[in-house]
Fold this protein.
Amino acid sequence: MDFLRSIAQYLYNLTLGYGVIGLGLGTFLESLGIPTASAVLDVTAGILIIEGRTTFIEALIIADVGLVLGSLTSYYAGHATTGILSRLRRGRPEVAKHESWARRFIDRYGDKAIFFGQLFGPARTWISFPAGAMRMDIKKFTLYTALGGAIYCSIIILLSLYFTIIIKQRLEQTLSLITIPILIAVACAIIFLIFFGRWISERLT
């Protein structure tokens, strides 16, 4: 968990410092098999758009391209494996569980599983490797990944933008209510509560 947090923090700092680079890198790493790496998209996309450092379309394209590239990398890893890489990944119980689920999902829904899989966290992270191991048609895989990924990224970016606007408005409203008399009153109330608490504790002891 500390490893995942450090990755998320790195991507967050990278995105705020250098713009949309972190968005694409986040979706790339999550599609490659690192859960929650694209969480940076949720947090920073709205901030970048509000600050005028990117546009919705630019953020969407970069995030979707990163998602597709990560999925293709995982796909070819699954396609090229001779069983060694698969056994290594299955040595981790949580990976084995998600990949087993992804295989059943593909068996049930076929090519369309890739499209729908991009709309769900666990499937989006793990579905590409078994798709490659099962020799799914690369053209259909790429197309469905790009389309499903675009829908997912659009939703996340819009939600990020919405909540960023809401938080900013609430913060501005709150700050507008804070005046010097109110600050003095709050400080006096805190001091009073401290001394009152000490007085009560002395009475009780």
